[in-house]
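User: Show me an example of a complex going from sequences to structure tokens.

Assistant: Sure. Here are the input components:
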Amino acid sequence: MNELKGACIIGQSGGPTSVINASAYGVIDTALKSNLITQVLGAEYGIRGVLADRLFDMGLEDSHELELLKYTPSSALGSCRYKIAEPSKDDTDYKRILEVFRKHNVRYFFYNGGKDSMDTCNKINQYMQSVGYECRVMGVPKTIDNDLFGTDHCPGYGSAAKYIATSMMEVYQDAHVYDTGMIVVMEIMGRHAGWLTAAAALASEYGAGPDLLYLPETDFSMQKFIDSAKKIYAETGKCLIAVSEGIHYEDGDFVSEAKKSATDGFGHAQLGGLATILAEVLKEETGAKVRGIELNLLQRCGAHLASKTDIEESYMAGKAAVENALNGINGRMIGFERVIKNGRYACKTKLIPLMEVANAEKKIPKDWINETEDGVNRKFIEYALPLIQGEPDLPKVDSLPRFAHLKKILAK
Amino acid sequence: MNELKGACIIGQSGGPTSVINASAYGVIDTALKSNLITQVLGAEYGIRGVLADRLFDMGLEDSHELELLKYTPSSALGSCRYKIAEPSKDDTDYKRILEVFRKHNVRYFFYNGGKDSMDTCNKINQYMQSVGYECRVMGVPKTIDNDLFGTDHCPGYGSAAKYIATSMMEVYQDAHVYDTGMIVVMEIMGRHAGWLTAAAALASEYGAGPDLLYLPETDFSMQKFIDSAKKIYAETGKCLIAVSEGIHYEDGDFVSEAKKSATDGFGHAQLGGLATILAEVLKEETGAKVRGIELNLLQRCGAHLASKTDIEESYMAGKAAVENALNGINGRMIGFERVIKNGRYACKTKLIPLMEVANAEKKIPKDWINETEDGVNRKFIEYALPLIQGEPDLPKVDSLPRFAHLKKILAK
């Protein structure tokens, strides 16, 4: 094995999750313990911090505060949505990254993010190889959207799914309190994949789920939606609906965008989010009292409802990235493989080429969606339920969350 | 002491809270143990269930399920917003209530709700006295709004406040993740009193609170709001704002209503909630990326974040109502008195005439609000912090909440 000595960088990118910092902690904790890694650097705002040479010396942080990262939502180092150029078209950024890598003798680069971040990771890896600079580049997955290719599931998904299912169960209680009619539309994140919205169906296992659930994996028909909702409302006086922000008509137009669909002929002049739009449509159709609820940022930063399984797996992904890199692995993202032992869920890490992850997207399989395309079946429930399990022992002060406070001292 | 033997009714009314069922359980549990109370009846949908003679025999419920009411949000018996007539104008309802009371030999009536419910309670009590039917009528308070007169605080407030403060802390992390500008407006319930919105300031104690906070206790100026937000945004690149749904201009017009204010001259044609409206105003003014977040129903049913103190006090209020009624007390609402012993918070019950509660409303004292009227001071923090304390041991199945399942068998 080629032992490689030098500094490492950990960067975070893309939208935050409740547990992205648990992965960062997995990287930092493991790297700090390694004799080969001479310095652990945290990039401020992802790759932008590398470009700006804004790198924190993680070895100067208090170890207890670092451990609190496991329970601190959002990206503690700062994140970015910076799109790096194709190196063949413009290699300015890559030259600068190389310069900073050389300056700090960076030989390990860990990037913690979703699909776009894996693309960045892949490009940096290819560039470093092309110029003969030895650096092991590893992707650490993160996304509440759960849409990364090649992995059973993604760190961040389980906690968001738990937040959504719990909130759905609570709103169910609330929406059924009066003897008068009530329709509630809950809008859930996920522009292209319906994993998060489907998580609302976990509440159905306990008798408090949505009556209807719409995913971006299928084409939305406003007329079918209205007919279904009206039928349920007529029968029960209530209708609870979970809907993905990314639902679209057959022609591809997002329902959230205020234009007339060629398919359905429905238009909506309202501003406001999708939940409001759909709630208003049903108000007109039924005369019912309606509520549009958008889970908004809350679903991706609701660390107080994090899944212990998710936290532990997120840490494990970060740890595995470092361990594999130290063992000579390069250009891979850590993925998860589901292992069922004696009927019990377990999870182990695997390695997926960055190239493959950067160019694909994982959606809910068609045969997990019901025939009427307004719900998911047992296959989804069995898939998702293990991911939300376990209550983390959340550190609190005065019954409010105690998040990590980092000193963020720039490396010399 | 006049020992009064007969059945009791517990009814729930108004908007739900996370802990209203803890109070109902306090009533039911205490009443079931009493030798004087011959039958414990739960009214379906509050007073409407009495009018319809839809009364559940709570003695037939499983005792474990009843205990789960402590952790089950919303009104398990069903609620209503039924406005009872003045008995002098129309006594139809009262005659019917008397008929149902006689039928089941109801001698105790416990009504669990907010200000309007206490008004209903008061009127029923006066009617029963006027016709010489002996029945002890007691109010059990409930409201996330915390606006009931004569009590230090209200059951339901502490849990909602904890939900709001925790969510604010998490959103703070999320809103500060990028190096780009971001403005977030969080809309919180409370049409006439700002107690809930002020709870967002608890997050400031831990460095993750709103920069600006607007209450219905003061007049809102759109120009002042814009100036303050722009100043903070210019300095920090971020601005986090908590705003009550009930903020209004000097002339009394709600800011959430789409009309031009005579005071400020600002108008807004947007539909959508107040958070969206204010976020759009700031987007125009600053060009920043904005997010409007409405906590919506989530804040009043988020039992997973309930305060243990609130649950215990809510139970205590229900218990005290029964005990006092058994001791001959009548026409009172249970209130809370704060007792500071050796610098530690404690709470005991007291009795407040229903008449007084029905006609008053408690707002945040002016001297708890800061001079610039965009925040609260230490007096509020010291008041509210004890109310959110303690983590209840929430029953879960598969890491999702296990709510009470009642059989709801109608009384013969």
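The lines above are the inputs; the final block is the predicted structure for all two components together. The two ends of chain A are 31 Å apart (CA to CA).
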